[in-house]
Amino acid sequence: MATAADIAAMRRAVALAARGLGSTSPNPVVGCVVTDAAGRTAGEGYHRRAGGPHAEVHALTAAGERARGGTAYVTLEPCDHAGRTGPCTRALIDAGIGRVVYAVPDPTPQATGGAATLRAAGITVEEGLLAAEAKAGNTAWLTAVRTGRPHVLWKYAATLDGRIAAEDRTSRWITSPEARADVHRLRAEADAVVVGSGTLAADDPHLAARGVPGAVQPLRVVLDTRATVRPGARVLDGTAPTLVAVGEDADTSRIAGAGAGAGGVDVVRLPAADTGTGLSVPALLTELYGRGVRSVLLEGGPTLAGAFVAAGAVDRVVGYLAPVLLGAGPAALSYAGIGTIADALRLDMTETVRIGPDLRITAVPAITPKER
User: Is 126 designated active site?
Assistant: First the structure.
């Protein structure tokens, strides 16, 4: 049975893992705490970037000889394969660790089996401590492994009566500076930020993460079926890489003339959606997955959000609600393939937090009894 010290060490490992959000893809975020034989913290670490040392290696390096006979608390089952780095199982064995406690088993075929290797080496292994917390922190990667596409978080900001802009389409600013700063945190934690051509034309968004120290800039993605992006659009600058997804027959000369290449701009052609309007959401997600993207922040307007909902490709919703009333103007979500209340996408609220004067609500699609 886990002790209070075990729980505290694993909770610390979960917190450490979160530091890697946005910089480890296509790898997971992982945290590790190593205690000595007396139970005192000897070393800590987290996976900082893909291709770099794993969390266990950082923690063991910090612990040194104090790791011998101690315990390693890891948020994910230690890997048992050699990729760009060596297997963490070997590092733990060589360090003389006596016990390994991990939260979540590794579901990938190439990395699984670490627990068995550790046990074969005489190390005590325990699984499942704070599994729910560790899964929540690694939900994007786990979703990508399970579905073969990136995890999608749809973010929107709206008034209390659900409007994202006024009747004349003005929208700056509905939410507070505190809420907008929180959105930049979401950008920094995502591998890609996605908008549509409507948002691009109306708002000329920059889509980079600002005000987040050490942030790895996400890939900025624009769905622009007819390649109408104008030269000089802020999303085409060199602050972060940009991908413009266009229709199969689109004339992309305008994008090339806007500085593609010099600004780190790439263009990809995608098939049309099955509805005949816009681009295929599944095709886009397949393309992004192939580029190493495991988490997407969807910041587009109501039409694009509706397309993602209709495609069954929204895994989490974060809504920022401002204490403002407009009474008219566009709603947060447009047509989403839902024609009757019986087909409504039901959500489970997982968090409500006050952000300045606004309320941030986080929800995930409800699991039906059939899916359990």
Answer: no
Backbone torsions φ then ψ of 306, nearest 5 degrees: -60, -40
User: Exposed (0-12), middle (13-18) or buried (19+): which is 59, by Cβ within 10 Å?
Assistant: buried
Q: Say which residues have a Cβ less than 8 Å from residue 364's Cβ, sequence separation at least 6.
A: 315, 316, 317, 347, 348, 350
Prior bond to 26 cis, omega within 30? yes
Q: Please provide the distance, in angstroms rounded to a whole number, between the alpha carbons at the two ends of the chain.
A: 27
Total residue count of the chain as it appears in this document: 372
Between strands 71-76 and 31-35, the pairing is antiparallel
Give pLDDT tens digits for 108-130: 877 678 999 999 999 999 999 99
- The catalytically annotated residue of 56, 77, 133, 189 is 56
- How far is the C-alpha of 301 from the C-alpha of 312, rounded, in Å? 17
255-296 tens-digit pLDDT:
765 544 434 789 999 999 988 778 999 999 999 999 999 999
C-alpha to C-alpha distance for 333 and 306, rounded to whole angstroms:
6
